[in-house]
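Continuing from the previous page of notes. For each protein in this section, the sequence appears first, followed by its structure tokens. Read the first protein now.
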Amino acid sequence: MKWFVFVLFMTSEPNSPNAYLFTTPSFDTQRQCAVAVVNPNTIPIFVNKLIQEFGTTPAIKSISCISQETIDKIDEMTNHPEAKSI
């Protein structure tokens, strides 16, 4: 199963982004993902991608590692609101 970095931003503006899912890099385990988000060698990869996407680094509320399975469930709930909760 693949794991991905998911970032929630602190925002109060309605048109501001509130989250970002890094599709690369992906990880084979939750532990590899968790290590990557605190590794001084990989942090610049994430920061540079946020700057590329948003022109700045939005204020970060939380960083999580989520599985492909969770992403699929969220997609299903978004595309089919009648779906059950995770």
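Done with the first. The second protein uses the same format. Note its length before scrolling.
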Amino acid sequence: MRKELFWDRDETRVNPETEIERAINFGGFEYIAEVQKKYGIEKFIDVLMKSRNLSKRAVNYWCLALGIDRSKAAVFRDSNNIWYPFK
């Protein structure tokens, strides 16, 4: 686990989903490989597709790299859920 990505949390209380999210958003390729090895590619893809806490750019890249349809990812699915106070 990279301490610089978890400066705001106790390292012993970080769940796998949070570690994978931070790896996708802020980690490099080496850390991504480390996380995939630690939790498995299935868990990585599960977080990639279900998490709404990811950047669209990162999700787009990983969907392209893994051959996954990005429109099924949560960050691309529900774009109408943003609150617009002045419609």
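What the second structure shows: The chain has a mean pLDDT of 86. The helical segments are 16-26, 29-39, 41-50, 56-66, 74-77. We return to this in next week's lecture.
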